[in-house]
Amino acid sequence: MVQRAQLSRWRKTQVWFSKLSKQWQLLVMSIPLLMLIFVFNYFPLWGWIMAFQNYKVNKGIFGSKFVGFDNFRTLFADEQFYLVLRNTLSMGFLNLIFGFIGAIVLALLLNEVRLTFFKRTIQTITYIPHFVSWVVIALVSGEIKQGDMKLQPNDVWILTSTD
Known about the structure:
The protein has a domain at 1-77. The protein has 7 helices and 2 strands. The chain has helices at residues 2-22, 24-42, 60-63, 70-77, 81-112, 116-131, 134-146, and strands at 53-54, 65-66.
């Protein structure tokens, strides 16, 4: 009986490898995906080592001294830590709630607008920050506000001006 189970297992393995060899193109096509998963999901985990080290840039990750949980003891002992943690969690929670509800309310309100031009304009304005940097938006809006739309070398840039 044991030999029959081993023979059956060997036969299943042989069939599996036979199917695999017939579908080698799928394996080749999956290589880029596996590389992306490795590079963006597993390779960054090496950076977690720095949390347990007295990290020095000139020594790198493997040359820095290992200190264990000392960095975490210092972090948790800091009197500002719980205030910062509370602020971070509350801002994340508020961003989640208001961002989600705000998007739904905006979509419902825009659905009721009859003027297509106005609706498309509002949609474009609300989607621009997702595709364009805020720095570019601020510079363009500053140039529009000044009216000349020409970048001069001696212009006072809107992001560096103090007034």
